[in-house]
Specification:
Length: about 700
């Protein structure tokens, strides 16, 4: 927002140079980003935070300057000379939704002559980035920049029934806005929803409340009589409508942050007086002020002890009182105490609690007085529940070559539908859609961490990085099918794409199902979870033949597998992508296997490999269970070492190389003992699973 120093000094008398004013305002929380000197004037570019709508005008900044420099403040003059019939005999205002529009004020100016604005007004508007339109429209923009309250002018004779109705839009209603499209001379036509507030005449909408006026009743060269509007609209309603219609205007920028409900009459009087000055005409007597429930400001208590505790230095009670009164607060000291009651002015919509008053005192006195010290702390920190386990997961995955990703919780609806996994939460319905999304292209809270990992992979692939290993710890958001409010589930997401190192790190190969399965097993080992199994599964987004779920005691802890070819083709993946999603909150609820001491082996191990052909229908987990069931006392380990398909291998079979490790805790095993155990394993594989030696 731009502020003219010449215009500012018409409202507050101070001899401080512009740079001194900028520094003091910045220290008081109103940051001046740039200072520019143009044509004998100095322009400030402000970065006003969203909680300070009162500072979005010259008069708002003038109030701050007057308080900070103890300078006299002169409000803009608004002397209205009224004549002719009373305004209430010419028009009427009906508010049908007092929640979205608590106040609406109207005036009528008759006999105006539309033309160009005087040079002084045009120069002032253009210096602040406003295009001159005509004298009446320019006055509304001028008062907006001066006082911060949006106004709108209607051609009174084009209003159906010469009246105003503030209501919600009706189904199917449309409006053509005043603003032309950037691509040509066509005006924008908008279809309205029934939750949007409009300003209507007796028949149709003539403006979108708090945002944009309609073309049908706009000021033109033929306008003779003007109805001037000054209103207050609920911030949330304006924000919702502006986002839905993708309209960001000077008016919506102020209304959605919170305007001053008491500034309506002051602003409309100022505008009416200026219109008569620059366009002629006469102002009808009185105003139509529809204000069903006047706002009441609640007194806020403030203790001197609380001020000193928060600002960190001594503040006298009198300085507290003077600081707040200088900022426009009504202050009542409480007798025989160092406490007071303060009522915030109507334009300070951001002040509601004691801490807000402390901030106001600190701003007035200057943040530079706050000492640079660390706050005292006498306690000791502790990890949150489960934090040790989360650290173990992160360290384990990082140790085997993964990078941690942090993605937005907001996602594209189509992408979320593609990778949502109902296998983990069968009782959950669709994802959580936002009524007022922060990002228009991401209107949903993610129901799976896989969406963020997939987007990260696609971004890497576009930049030439196709070998990707990512994981993320975060929350997904689900809406239960029973209609209860959304729930959060802590989850681990894992992604592997491209190539990986082979077993001896001498070469690289394409990633496969066993890499993602190994990553899942690494996580489970890090969490020390007992007795889990992998089972074949059908998961919507995964390859039907390369997908598994991780199960313990009948409960699904996660899924893993390769992205289905159809989905990979649709997403234009450059390589095969493998995904896993684990329900971390469920895993943290499982009692981990105790860590027990085991001494290092005293006797050597003997390793024997067996290469077999086995039907593809046989599960590896069944093979391991069958071999373990033999009860061989000296079998220390039994794992899959290699797997091969194609070539001379029959299409319905695959080749497995299994590695058995034998070791005794009491002595060195003989070759005959190892061979006997090895033979029993081979016989079991042949008889139970139809395996044959290669």
């Amino acid at each position: 927002m731009r502020i003219s120093i010449n215009w500012l000094k018409e409202m507050v008398a101070t001899d401080v140079d512009p740079r001194g004013i900028a520094e003091r305002l910045t220290l008081a929380g109103l940051a001046v980003d740039t200072i520019e000197e143009i044509g004998g004037d100095t322009l400030f570019e402000f970065d006003i935070t969203s909680n300070r709508p009162d500072a979005l005008s010259h008069f708002g900044i003038a109030r701050e300057v007057a308080a900070l420099f103890d300078a006299p403040l002169a409000a803009p003059v608004a002397t209205v000379e009224e004549s002719g019939p009373a305004t209430e005999t010419l028009t009427s205002v009906a508010i049908e939704d007092a929640e979205l529009c608590p106040r609406y004020v109207a005036r009528v100016i008759r006999g105006v002559k539309i033309g160009p604005s005087p040079g002084w007004m045009v120069r002032r508007l253009e210096a602040l980035g406003q295009r001159s339109i005509n004298n009446v429209a320019d006055v509304t923009n001028y008062v907006l920049l001066e006082q911060g309250h949006p106004l709108h002018a209607f051609d009174f004779n084009l209003l159906g029934g010469n009246r105003i109705v503030v209501r919600r839009a009706r189904p199917g209603e449309r409006i053509v806005t005043l603003e032309k499209l950037a691509t040509g001379d066509e005006f924008r036509e908008i279809e309205l929803r029934d939750d949007m507030l409009v300003i209507a005449d007796a028949d149709v909408p003539v403006a979108i409340a708090g945002i944009k006026g309609g073309k049908g009743t706009g000021i033109s060269d033929a306008t003779v009589d003007v109805l001037l509007e000054a209103a207050y609209f609920q911030p949330a309603g304006v924000r919702r409508t502006a986002r839905a219609l993708k309209l960001d205007t000077d008016a919506s920028h102020r209304f959605e942050r919170g305007a001053d409900i008491e500034a309506t009459t002051r602003a409309i009087d100022r505008a009416a007086a200026l219109i008569v000055e620059v366009a002629g005409g006469t102002v009808s007597r009185g105003v139509v002020d529809c204000y069903p429930r006047p706002a009441v400001r609640t007194p806020i208590p403030l203790r001197r002890s609380r001020v000193e505790a928060l600002v960190g230095y001594e503040v006298t009670f009198d300085r507290m009182v003077d600081a707040l009164r200088g900022l426009g607060f009504a202050v009542e000291p409480l007798r025989d105490t160092e406490e007071l009651l303060a009522v915030a002015p109507s334009y300070r919509v951001d002040v509601a609690i004691e801490e807000d008053l402390v901030e106001e005192v600190a701003r007035a006195l200057g943040y530079g007085l706050v000492p640079s010290t660390l706050p005292p702390w006498g306690g000791s920190g502790t990890y949150l529940a489960g934090e040790t386990e989360r650290r173990a997961v992160r360290e384990t995955l990082q140790a085997i070559g993964f990078n941690e990703a942090i993605s937005l919780s907001f996602v594209d609806r189509a992408l979320d539908d593609e990778f949502a996994c109902t296998e983990l939460d069968r009782a959950a319905a669709a994802g959580v859609d936002l009524v007022n999304p922060v990002l228009d292209n991401k209107p949903r809270m993610r129901s799976s961490l896989l969406t963020g990992l997939v987007e990260a992979y696609e971004t890497n692939a576009k930049h030439g990085t196709r070998n990707v290993r990512l994981f993320e710890l975060g929350k997904r958001f689900l809406r239960p099918a029973d209609g209860e409010r959304p729930v959060e589930r802590e989850t681990i997401g894992v992604l592997i794409a491209g190539t990986v190192d082979d077993a001896d790190h001498r070469d690289r190969r394409d990633a496969d199902f066993y890499d993602i399965k190994g990553a899942v097993e690494a996580v489970i080992r890090a969490l020390r979870l007992p007795s889990f199994t992998f089972e074949r599964a059908r998961v919507e987004c995964l390859h039907r033949g390369q997908a598994a779920r991780i199960v313990r005691d009948g409960h699904v802890l996660g899924i893993c597998g390769r992205v289905s070819p159809e989905l990979a083709t649709r997403r234009k993946f450059k390589s095969q992508v493998f995904l896993a999603e684990l329900a971390l909150d469920r895993m943290l609820g499982i009692e981990p296997t105790p860590v027990t001491y085991r001494r290092l082996p005293r006797f050597p191990s003997v390793v024997r490999d067996v290469s077999i052909l086995v039907p593809k229908a046989v599960d590896y987990s069944d093979i391991v269970s069958g071999v373990r069931a033999l009860g061989i006392p000296d079998l220390a380990d039994f794992v899959l070492y290699d797997i091969f398909t194609g070539g001379s291998i029959p299409g319905d079979h695959l080749s497995m190389t299994l590695r058995a490790t034998f070791r005794s805790e009491e002595r060195t095993l003989t070759d005959d003992e190892v061979s006997a155990s090895h033979r029993s394993i081979v016989d079991e594989l042949a008889s139970r699973f139809g395996a044959s030696l290669r």
